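Bit of a strange request maybe. I'm writing a small parser for structure token strings and I need a real example to test against, not something I typed by hand. Could someone generate the tokens for this chain?
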Amino acid sequence: MLRAGHVVALCVLALLTLGVLMVTSANMSVKTVEGPQQSFETSFSSILFSKTTAYMVLALGLMLLGSRVPVRGIERGLPTGSASDPARGMGFLILCTIALVGFCGLVYVPGLSRVMNGAHRWISLPVPGLQDALSVQPSEIAKWAMLPLIAWYAAARSMWLPQLVRGLFPALVAIGAVSGFIVLEDLGTGMLIAGVGVLILLAGGARFWHFLAFLPIALAALAAAIITEPYRVNRLLAFADPYADPEGIGYHTIQSLVAVANGEGFGRGLGHGLQKFGYLLEDHTDFLFAVICEELGIPGAVIVVLLFLTLMWAGWTIAWRERDTMCRLWAFGIVLTISLQAAINMFVVTGMAPTKGIALPLLSSGGTGWMLTAFSLGLLIAIDRTQDQERVVFADAPAAA
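Reply from user aminoacidic:
Good idea to test on real output. This should exercise your parser:
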């Protein structure tokens, strides 16, 4: 019988396969060849032995590895004190928060930092045997690492979570420290981490009106993050009216909309898009969905949306059936992260949201993003795979008592 975890794995495989094809198409360049047969062989071999395909294989391997991780009992296995201890887990939360902020701070370390387009978002790690250094985005790792941390906190301190000072406030400080540091260079990812963290806490039992008390502070911080960076202000202006400056701040949005419109009904055909040839910037990363719309048309866009909806449905099913608090909130966070990230990216590409710099999960080019997303979904599969074992434990508990 097909389980929800199997559906997740199939969706990941389909999205990664489509991602390899579309990233390769977006990276196409005009080249003279000596015949149609040689052209086909060159194209096929370039896809099969490309770096993108290697990332796909690694991502699938990490998903398999994640599906075998023993996710049960992580909360009980951590040395965080007894359930009745008012300070339970506080030291662990502080230590993890400092570690994540410090790791994200590596983007400013000379020799490790890799600056692209004026942004400090990547670090370069030399790997023996590879000619080029491995590029890693610490904010991506922090994004996925925050999910089990906040889920564990909500489960371990569920007794105090409805209280503002002893329950909610420490978690908000941790979320604010990590997401706030990331916002310095990456507003979209920082906001995504903060939003998902807040929703996990609400699902874990925090009170909604407690969050309202911090809402003015959050809005003021967001306004400051936008106002202090002129390019973020320009993104809002371009969203309001891209045609006010079509050759300046509105250029990117206009070219994305042109690509979507060029797809018309059934697209121009795989590999036959025009906007990728120097018109649409970031066509293989943040704006890959525009290339999909141009080349595959409405059917291609619908397939992408349906794959994400199916993935979301399977993830919600796993989270809904879960009895272990930490695993349930962890699964909830994984599904939320991918769903929100996909929705934001597609809204940006179609001009329904300001440009955020958020990639389309499992489709947009990015080795770190593909591998970490696939590994996290593997953990979701592990939660689903072991749910029957958890039910046996719950069923046997009264008899053992």
